[in-house]
Amino acid sequence: MGSVEDELSAFLERISGVTCFRERTKIYAPTCRGRCISEVRKLIEKVNMLTGGSTVYDAEGSWIDPETGRVETEPVKVIEAAHYCLSREQAEKLVEALSEYAREAKQTAIAIYSGNQFYIAETPKLLKIYEERKIEML
Length: 138
Known about the structure:
Helix content is about 40%, strand content about 30%. By secondary structure, the chain is α+β, with helices and mostly antiparallel strands. Helix 2 (about 35-50) packs antiparallel against helix 3 and helix 3 (about 90-105) crosses helix 4 (about 125-135).
């Protein structure tokens, strides 16, 4: 007898109509204390178009401000999408959506969980690499 997860997985895979998604991506999108909610909504829409849907929930992000040494907090929307591995084209569009959100929402960084890895991408570096890749693809 396997673990609970193994048993549940084996059971669900035997049921017709159940879909198992092998990948999951979470994007932590700060709402700028409500000032950039329209940018967050655009990001949610783009994620849904690429992955077929998502679950979005409220959370709170916190970090140490390097200038003051104090803990800062901010409301975030967590966008969680289960999917099969994205195609290269879909991945490119997701990078474009993330870059656009980071730029328009004036974020200093964006956090992403994907492939059992947690990433924090600093916006200036993210945008620089994204722009360089766009030029290479032309």
